[in-house]
Specification:
- This protein is mostly helical.
- It has one domain.
- Helix 2 packs across helix 5 and helix 9 packs across helix 10.
- The protein is globular and about 60 Å long.
Amino acid sequence: MNHTFRLIFHIAVRDIKERYAASSVGVLWSFIYPIFFIIIYWFVFSKIMHVKGISPDIPFLPFLLSGLFPWFAIQEGIIKGTSSIIERGYIIKKMPIPNEIFPIASNISAFFHHSIGFSMFLIIYFINYGFPSFINILTLPALAFMQIIFSIGCSLLLSSITVYFRDIVQIITIALQGIFFLVPIFYPLSAIPDKFRLIVQINPITNLVEGYRSIIIFNKMPDLFTMLYCAVISIIVTVIGYVIFSRLKHGFADTL
């Protein structure tokens, strides 16, 4: 088990290094990119479009970023995790190592990359608008853990199928682009018509986003249903993903 964890850590670190392999400033881009990203969004939505806040006390930009950064981590983690097995096929065919480590490591590296920007946003926002209660702050890691578990579960499922059906990568990329607009990131959940709201609320990513916003923007503990729903769905998706992955992985070496 310890050997497996070391492999996951090693591959995740390698993925992070490969992202900036040809860069002169290296990992510093993980800090430069979100700063530039936040400035651009602030300029576009505040100075050009003059988008009004959700309320007089809640500007639009913090509302947007509190959901957008978690979405970026989930999206990249699932996409990279889905293609991780076929991209590392040359290793799988040569070395008898647990194949599960590749989609897991892909999600960890994606989470690390976007958590830097998310952390910078949180620091800036809390300094300007006040810190949430200590209990609420402790809930953020719980949401982050459920987020990682959910994206890993999706990646295990999709990466195993992708070995036999390569179009899955393109399909999931398009699907996530569509799902992005069905998650209340640019708009509040209350803006969705009642007849469509249940469909949006079923999406576990919606509940994760609402959980983050509840703590960051409203300084409130996410309701019990949101937390339980995220936990249960994350566990179910991970179990299903792992079971299917375990059954299909025996043919990876031959198919790849």
